[in-house]
Amino acid sequence: MTVRTAKFQIGQIVRHRFHPFRGVIYDVDPTFSNTEEWWLAIPEEMRPRKDQPFYHLFAENDQTTYIAYVSEQNLVLDEDPAPVSHPSVHEVFARLVDGKYELREHRAN
Fold this sequence. Notes:
It is a single chain. The model has no long low-confidence stretch (mean pLDDT about 95). It is globular, with a radius of gyration of 14 Å. Strand 6 and strand 7 form a beta hairpin. The chain has helices spanning about 35-40, 90, and strands at about 15, 20-30, 55-60, 65-70, 75, 95, 100-105. It has a five-stranded antiparallel beta sheet with strand order 4-3-2-1-5, with no helix packed on it. The chain has a two-stranded antiparallel sheet with strand order 6-7. By secondary structure, it is mainly beta.
């Protein structure tokens, strides 16, 4: 098995290569880790490989915010300096610094 390093990091803002949305990465799976049903719902000619990192995003488009699960091959860094408007961003991240969100510090009780 080939070990791959994820190209993107938690807190980075990315954009989908083909679909009009952007988002901030809040988790990374080293390989595909969703359901087969989800996988099969993607048209075969657009279905990404499973053997690559997949990213969980707080995503947004012109109409709404949502959670997205996207393969590494379908993401590029977003050069737009604007913050991501998803309401969950501030639950996970403290602030946006130089185009990357910094994680909130979680204190144990």
